[in-house]
Design brief:
single chain; mainly alpha; Leucine-rich repeat, LRR (right-handed beta-alpha superhelix); 13 helices; 10 strands; about 40% helix; Plant intracellular Ras-group-related LRR protein 1-like; repeat
């Protein structure tokens, strides 16, 4: 759990010099000569890294570095309490069990809904009883899921910790480089001066330094990842030269509206914060190409995001989104990668079908109930992940076969009974996962043979369907021809009979009275 010295040499050294908050075990007093050795300020066997980086022995540099990795220290302490990272098999088992629990819950609720009302219950009493039963089922399912969900959360924490270590090592390298250049600011210096000290009390030291630097020079990249920032000054919106802004892994709850002033910004990373919304002014970022807002508390995206017409990558995964902006597909013509996994999205807007540049769409772990009928228009799509929408996703549209460039498809852990008839037209598909579906078409023996066998089966099925439709069409034409001859014959006969009837039914000529005379 401690940083690996070979991968993170500076971080490992700094972390080893952090004071321990754990209570010291009661041990017998050490002999005086051993105590003297422990507190010797100049030990003879100093770590090899000090020979390579002598500035690490400077107490001020070390103190600055320790402040910079406070988040790593806190996370390490938390993980030591929570335990080691679960192995891959345990994580997979937890995911599978969560799927099973949700599936069982859906079946029980379905059976509950269709259960007949006893004769001794009136409608109101029966509804109350059903509601109570449903609440019991859901509560039992949630209790059963808690342990498995905790395993996944622990795995995600360890994954985030790995990234945190990499970011921390990069921060330490920058601090050391600053120390070599003699420009590191320390607490003693920060406390000197009236106005400057007041500014630093309100604005984090590093942020204040960036704003001061931006007023003197041209800044194009700012990395404030993992600084435990709780707010971002409005003045940041005045750094008009900025191309990249990384605010990830902080404690930001709000991004100021002034960010719309970053007219040249191409990449914005606000992932792993506490954001509940994005500013409406984000639509002013006309040159923004990459937006990463994963791991926040977003419940919706501002409609103005559709005005970021240069956007090529949008990652809003791990949030609480329930829908996407209605016009997202009509405006973001250059979007190539859309990541919306682990949200609560129930349906995709029909405009998504207009994302003609889209190459990768990840929508797993949502509540999708289907795809738009025109989904096949996404002819440049290469990777599609619709896994784990569980009981909500039951079918794919007939236009699915028009995704001629699709290479990877994951529709596992859903309730799909049959692949669309046009599935055999996906010639470029090389990777397919359909596990966890009650598939009938194709049958299980074909599924077990892999993606090639599935495509061959579905292609033959499609051909048979076309042949059958052609046969029915020909029969229909023949029937129409025969029906036409019979109709013409019937019409002629009807006309003939009508003429005869008119003749027979016509009034007779007056009878000659001479013929009535008796001879």
């Amino acid at each position: 759990m401690d940083p690996n010295p070979s991968k993170f040499p500076m971080l490992s050294y700094v972390m080893s010099r952090l004071p321990s908050l754990a209570p010291k075990p009661s041990t017998p007093a050490a002999p005086p000569h051993l105590c003297t050795i422990r507190i010797d300020p100049h030990p003879s066997d100093q770590p090899p890294i000090l020979n390579q980086m002598p500035h690490l022995s400077d107490p001020k540099v070390l103190a600055a570095m320790q402040r910079a990795v406070a988040d790593v220290s806190q996370t390490r302490s938390a993980l030591k309490t929570l335990g080691d990272r679960p192995d891959h098999e345990l994580v997979d088992t937890a995911k599978f069990r969560l799927c099973e629990i949700d599936s069982d819950l859906a079946k029980r609720l379905e059976e509950l809904v269709i259960s007949p009302r006893p004769s001794d219950f009136d409608r109101l009493q029966w509804r109350v009883r059903l509601a109570d039963k449903e609440a019991q089922f859901r509560e039992a399912a949630e209790k059963e899921k808690q342990g498995y969900a905790a395993i996944l959360q622990l795995d995600e924490l360890h994954s985030a910790y790995d990234k945190l270590l990499k970011d921390a090592e990069q921060r330490l390298v920058k601090i050391y480089e600053s120390a070599m250049a003699g420009v590191v600011e320390f607490d003693e210096e920060k406390e000197e001066g009236g106005d400057e000290g007041l500014i630093n009390d309100q604005v984090p030291e590093e942020v204040a330094g960036i704003l001061q630097e931006a007023s003197r020079t041209t800044l194009d990249r700012v990395n404030l990842s993992g600084r435990q920032l709780r707010f971002l000054p409005e003045a940041f919106g005045s750094i008009h030269s900025l191309l990249l802004l990384d605010l990830s892994s902080n404690e930001l709850k709000v991004i100021p509206e002034s960010i719309g002033g970053l007219e040249k910004l191409e990449e914005l990373n606000v992932s792993s914060n506490l954001l509940e919304s994005l500013p409406e002014s984000i639509g002013a970022l006309q040159k923004l190409k990459v937006l990463n807002a994963t791991g926040n508390k977003l419940s919706a995206l501002p409609d103005s995001i559709c005005q970021c017409r240069s956007l090529a990558e949008l990652d809003v995964s791990y949030n609480g989104l329930t829908y996407l902006p209605t016009n997202i597909g009509f405006e973001l013509a250059n979007l190539q990668k859309l990541s919306i996994q682990l949200n609560k999205i129930r349906s995709l807007p029909t405009s998504v079908c207009e994302l003609r540049s889209l190459r990768c769409l990840d929508a797993h772990f949502n509540e999708l109930r289907g795809l738009p009928l025109a989904f096949g228009r996404l002819t440049n799509l290469e990777i599609l992940n619709l896994a784990s929408n569980f009981t909500d996703l039951t079918e794919l549209p007939d236009t699915f076969g028009d995704l001629i460039n699709l290479k990877e498809l994951d529709i596992s852990n859903n309730q799909i009974h049959a692949l669309p008839d046009t599935f055999g037209r996906l010639d470029n598909l090389t990777k397919l996962n359909v596990d966890g579906n009650p598939l009938v078409v194709p049958p299980s023996d074909i599924v077990q043979q892999g993606v090639v066998a599935i495509k061959v089966f579905m292609a033959k099925r499609w051909l048979e369907i076309l042949v059958e439709e052609e046969r029915k069409s020909m029969l229909q034409v023949q029937d129409q021809e025969e029906t036409g001859w019979l109709t013409r014959s019937t019409s002629w006969l009807k006309d003939y009979v009508s003429g005869v009837s008119e003749y027979l039914g016509s009034p007779r000529a007056p009878r000659d009275p001479i013929l009535d005379q008796q001879l």
